Please model this.
Amino acid sequence: MELNRLAIAAVFCLGAASTSTNAADALPIVHDPRLVLELVAENPDIVTPIGLVFDQKKRLLVVESHTHFPPKNYAGPKADRIRIVIDENGDGKADKFETFFEGSTHTMSLTPGPDDWLYVATRMKIFRIRDKDGDGKADEQQDIIVMETKGNYPHNGLCGLCFDAAGALYFGQGENLGEAYTLIGTDGAKLSGGGEGGNIFRCKADGSALQRVATGVWNPFAIVFDNTGRMFTVDNDPDG
Model:
């Protein structure tokens, strides 16, 4: 289905935080006439959506978070899920929801990669998954980067995934409570630190050749490159 990607992102992320029982009341006002904001899906069909991408097959995949400080006696799933959101009848609203993957904890972000891999960042590791038999569910999983640390706060570890034009994978690492850490790549390369704040790293698509490329941030939740090759990041909680 052809949908405005910016509109989808705004609606999904808003939907998780709203406490209104009326979906129309919850929508913000769009002041830029070039943008269109439409409600595509909402609770209970999608719950706490914190990240979304279109994959190589143009499917909308959404991270559904269930493990980030769930309330007492939470009735939802015990692990996070990645959901496929589908508009089968073409009316612009999602009417089918499938689970592509489930089982991760403190899931932060995702991005499509080469060879039909979907890369997923959690607080403690980055892994990639794909559907080899074509049944709509991930059946292959590989760890790309693993972080060893005593830090355990849900959202100040690994985060923010992005590929550059040359095919290198970039990811963020939060301030990690100031705790010591060691990042380990698939080739055995290790990078250690602690107390310096947040960082941005890169590696090859297979998790080898790990390098630190930037520091001095706090929690770089999102990373993107513009058309001129400049890298931008969203830095969460730098005042803390």
About this structure: The chain is about 5% helix and 40% strand.
